Amino acid sequence: MIQRILLGVNGSIAAYKAAQLVRLLTGQGLEVRVLMSRGAQAFVTPLTFQALSGQPVASELLDAGQESAMGHIELARWADLILIAPASANSLARLAVGLADDLLGAVCLASRAPLWLAPAMNSAMWQHPASQANLALLQQRGAHLLEPERGELACGEQGDGRMMEPAQILQRLLAAQPDQSKPDPLRPTPLKGQRALVTAGPTQEPLDPVRYLGNRSSGKMGYALAEALRDAGAEVCLISGPVALPGPAGVERILVEQALQMHRAVLDRVQAGGVDLFIACAAVADYRPVRVATEKIKKGSASLHLELQPNPDILAEVAALPAGLRPFCVGFAAETQDLEQQAEAKRQAKRVDLLAANRVGPGLGFGQEDNQLLLLWADGRLELPLLPKRQLAQRLVEQLVKLSAASCQPPAKNSSWPLKAGS
Ligand code: C5P
């Protein structure tokens, strides 16, 4: 799965289009780092790309400051894909020869990531046999071409050489992404052979046939976690409250509405044995109405009193199971204040192995595309920056892989997996 794109920008008037490209790529939840040639900086400033990508812009190979921030080898390893847009005639020639006397050349040589080229140049330069031969050589080595278009060029001529439009570049990159429902043989799968259970979304506690008590959880974080666990090789079952999200490919999904139904679905699975990992990401209602009216409650009285009773704490119950049945447990804490203290208290009270805490409130947490997490475990903490939930989920799973391997709980495998919903 492509997550991290290194965008190389060369000196061409089309460099301004690269700014829009960064917006489109980050809008897809991709992490983008921009690397500019000196020529590119004559057209657009590094600050533009820094503001759009939210990351420092690299340009110099022999700059001690830039190398210490993220050196050329680190950049080369970081990238899942290198896209050069616009790619100049000069850049095609340099890449074809394999020059490494500037940052882009060095990074391309040092990286095993696929290389995508979106050339932009005057049509005579594009058609010149030298450019065509350079391109043919690069394609032979596996580079992907995003063909330039015909149209009016910056030099005033009509012809081939306009950089492909950013929206079309994005479409081409997305179309080339591997199908997530099929296993990618090159993807590392540290959780292969492990079974994971994830709860996600809100619960709805009925008051009468048409009303319920609910909350603002969108389910996005839990769904992203289910996908990240699947991508890491785990067999995943997602137990979800009512959300507006499609079931992730390759993940079994059980839909529930109420906390008691979620509790039953989780406990049935875990008690059957063989669950290695449990992530409780759902925003489960702490209370439910004592009485559910069989008919719609009518308005009329000046005030209405609802009597509520506590719901079972699913996470705490799973975490209290005896060794052998107890999976590695991850909990969430959404807090509006004193984040770390509240979260640490919750981690200890519920006896979870890893707790992910986030601040919630207006514009934060629930329903948002991005989130920020503080991870706490018995002898460590890690702050994850503001990131799209998909990336955050991957980082959380990376940490979970490390901690669960270290805790080395022998999984109790049982042939009754998977149970069907409601069983
Ligand atoms: O106590 P609090 O609701 O803040 O705890 C949050 C954590 O506990 C989350 O991981 C949530 O999924 C889990 N939880 C649960 N069952 C409940 C309440 C919370 O699994 N009834």
Your description of this structure?
By secondary structure, this protein is α/β, with parallel strands linked by helices. The protein folds into two domains: 4-176, Rossmann fold; 195-406, Rossmann fold. The chain is 34% helix and 23% strand. It has 15 helices and 19 strands. The protein has helices at residues 15-27, 38-41, 46-53, 64-70, 72-78, 89-97, 103-110, 123-127, 129-140, 166-175, 220-231, 259-271, 314-319, 339-350, 389-407, and strands at residues 4-9, 31-36, 81-87, 115-119, 144-145, 149-152, 158-162, 195-200, 205-206, 212-213, 235-240, 252-255, 277-280, 287-289, 308-310, 328-335, 354-359, 370-377, 380-388. It binds cytidine-5'-monophosphate. The site of cytidine-5'-monophosphate (C5P) has 15 residues, from helix 13 and strand 16.
Give the SSE layout.
Layout (H helix, E strand, L loop, with lengths): L3 E6 L5 H13 L3 E6 L1 H4 L4 H8 L10 H7 L1 H7 L2 E7 L1 H9 L5 H8 L4 E5 L3 H5 L1 H12 L3 E2 L3 E4 L5 E5 L3 H10 L19 E6 L4 E2 L5 E2 L6 H12 L3 E6 L11 E4 L3 H13 L5 E4 L6 E3 L18 E3 L3 H6 L8 E8 L3 H12 L3 E6 L10 E8 L2 E9 H19 L16
Parallel strand pairs: 1-2, 1-3, 3-4, 4-5, 8-11, 8-13, 11-12, 13-16, 16-17
Antiparallel strand pairs: 6-7, 9-10, 14-15, 17-18, 18-19
Helix pairs in contact: 1-3, 1-10, 5-7, 6-9, 11-15
Bound molecules: cytidine-5'-monophosphate.
